[in-house]
Amino acid sequence: MSILTIILNILLPPLAVAMQHGIGKQFLISLLLTIIGWLPGVIHAFIVNS
Predict the structure, then answer these.
(1) Which among 5, 7, 12, 36 would be 20 to 30 A from 21, CA to CA?
(2) Alpha carbon of 35 to those of 1, 2, 13, 15, 48: distances in Å?
């Protein structure tokens, strides 16, 4: 995992997921979790991008 991915996982979780996996199911889950609360989105992004 690169430094850019780690920074994006923390600041913009849906963007980090979209960069790794494209705009699909994982992106929508990440977007929804980030809207609900920032921390669940960050956790999901780290799990998906690891």
Answers:
(1) 36
(2) 24, 25, 11, 13, 17
Q: pLDDT digit string (tens) for 3-48?
A: 999 999 999 999 999 999 999 999 999 999 999 999 999 999 999 9
d(CA 45, CA 41): 6
The residues, ordered by sequence, that sit 6+ positions from 38 with a Cβ below 8 Å of its Cβ are 13
In 3D, which of 46, 48, 36 has the Cα closest to residue 7?
46
What span, in angstroms and rounded, lies between the C-alpha atoms of 15 and 9? 8
